[in-house]
Amino acid sequence: MSLTKREVENVAHLARLEITEGEIERVVENLSSIIDFVDQLRGADTGDVLPMAHPLDMSQRLRTDEVSESDQRKRFQANTSAVEAGLYLVPKVIE
Amino acid sequence: MEWETVIGLEIHAQLNTLSKIFSGASTAYGAEPNSQACLVDLGYPGQLPVLNAQAVAKAVKFGLATGSKVARRSVFARKNYFYPDLPKGYQISQFELPIVETGKLEVVLEDGSIKIVGLTRAHLEEDAGKSLHEDFAGMTGIDLNRAGTPLLEIVSEPEMYNAKEAVAYMKTIHTLVRYLDISDGNMAEGSFRCDANVSVRPKGSDKLGTRSEIKNLNSFRFVERAINFEVERQIDILESGGKVVQETRLYDSVKDETRSMRSKEEANDYRYFPDPDLLPVVLEESYIEDIAKTLPELPGQKRKRFIDEHGLSAYDAGVLTASRELGDYYEHVVERLGSDPKLAANWVSGELAGALNKAGLDITESVVGPEALADMLGRIVDNTISGKIAKDVFEAMWSGEGTADEIIEARGLKQITDSSAIEAVIDQVMEANPGQLADYRSGKDKLFGFFVGQVMKATQGKANPAQVNDVLRKKLAG
């Protein structure tokens, strides 16, 4: 098993995923087998290979710097449950 | 034990583009909350970011101006964390392959000496929105207008050894980004802010101590005070046998202290990976060359030119190159005046700066333009008025009484350079003060100043001071 239960719990926490006690063992097992599979790639000699940042062999097109969006706040905020003074309200977060 | 402080800064400069880095929403400051947050900025599913050409060009400009390596290929990555001012759940940033790497910056320190600070990198990323915690019972209000505003994060090497050096470095970057016109540098609006990484170590040690990171410092004064507080705090911990914890801290300007912001268990673990929504940014040689051609004269170059060609002191040259506009103003004055750059420098950084300061105006809003000031200085140079009278003329110009010549004429301020007229005044003064004259002649040299004062008073300050000195000395000698 390449991953520990603790590592999986930590990653789940960072991703805000809730994994129950009953599920955790299966998740550890599944993720470990994926990691092990990918690990086989380490065997290949990639010394001369440029790391691939994207599956398409193309470069980014750039957009002209101009304002093309208009104010649609009303429409967007119709999708949310709490709005006040134009602000989206969320449960209090404070560091 | 003697301690050494080590500081590295991460400066966030908002790039002054019209639209956001990945969307066509406006970046204008101060709009109604969320009126400039489009679907891309709100992180709606199915939206794709498209990179703003100007954001790239401005980052390249910075790279070229600092002699950095401009990457021919750079990659955007996702920095993953959850916070409501970042609706996607990740910030698009650059990680392994930033657009700008390894540069150097000449920083002029307070004593005029020059320090070279290494730049580790500068990368493009998007700003987050703003959270407002105060006004909503139990809730936080989120304004996403700022979300997606382009940022250039400029990371220095840990090569500054006290708070003043860090501030000097930050000011140098601040001046540079405004010269390059890549950021408005407005600190009050948050366009220019920094995080300071601070650690201490025993003097002479070459191993870095454990650092803390002070977040979101938005004034030069706060940077200095926060670092000084943090250094004291860390030394206190170490001297009492404790250990500094690596953590993020916040500076409280009211209490003038830093305090812990994130606990250790939430230690940053951003799980960066290349953003599949964006392709690598590839820059052609010709593109970079074209941008290089648009670079203005940089503050360091201008400073050297003012010292070498105008004969200014390092201090004056530093003051006059603090902004591109101030340097331009000064050069306009010199150009029109055609001589005496030092006189021009003194007036621009002295009387003019004082008047601007008092009126709360920027150099570009000056009531007295460079031509008008140059014409007035011309009257000092050709001996029409003395430097002292010039201050009154300037004040009158500032309050809109007309050109220098008009004011000199209307107020009869023309300097008396006719030596027979000056001699006549001196004779009167000597006659009116026989006691002082006798004292002077019996050895009280200090009374010379008294006589100068009397002559100037009698001529309402209009007598040419050099001439007065000359003639007076001869006459008093008897």
Your description of this structure?
The complex is a heterodimer of chains A (95) and B (478). Chain A is mostly helical and 95 residues long. Chain A has a domain at 5-41: Orthogonal Bundle (Histone, subunit A). Chain A is 36% helix and 7% strand. Chain A contains three helices and two strands; from the N terminus they run αααββ. Chain A has helices at 5-14, 21-39, 73-77; strands spanning 83-84, 87-91. In chain A, strand 1 and strand 2 (87-91) form a beta hairpin. The longest helix of chain A is centred in the N-terminal third of the chain and has 19 residues, at 21-39. Chain A is flat, with a radius of gyration of 22 Å. The two termini of chain A are 37 Å apart. The mean pLDDT of chain A is 89. Chain B is of the alpha+beta class and 478 residues long. Chain B has three domains: 7-203 and 269-290, no CATH class; 299-411, no CATH class; 419-477, Arc Repressor Mutant, subunit A. Chain B contains 16 helices and 16 strands. Chain B has helices at residues 39-42, 53-65, 163-179, 220-239, 285-293, 299-310, 314-320, 324-337, 341-359, 370-381, 387-398, 404-411, 419-432, 434-441, 448-458, 465-477, and strands at residues 3-14, 69-70, 73-74, 76-80, 90-94, 100-108, 114-126, 130-132, 139-143, 150-156, 192-202, 212-217, 247-252, 257-260, 273-274, 281-282. In chain B, strands 2-6-7-10-1-11-12-13-14 form a nine-stranded mixed β-sheet. In chain B, a hairpin with a 4-residue loop joins strand 13 (247-252) and strand 14. In chain B, helix 6 (299-310) packs across helix 7 (314-320) and helix 13 packs across helix 15. The radius of gyration of chain B is 30 Å and the shape is elongated. At the A-B interface, helix 3 and strand 2 of A face helix 2, strand 9 and strand 16 of B. Strand 2 (87-91) of chain A pairs antiparallel with strand 9 of chain B.
Features:
heterodimer; A: 95 residues; mainly alpha; Histone, subunit A; two-stranded antiparallel sheet; 3 helices; 7% strand; flat; B: 478 residues; alpha+beta; Arc Repressor Mutant, subunit A; 3 domains; 9-stranded mixed beta sheet; 3-stranded antiparallel beta sheet; 16 helices; 40% helix; elongated
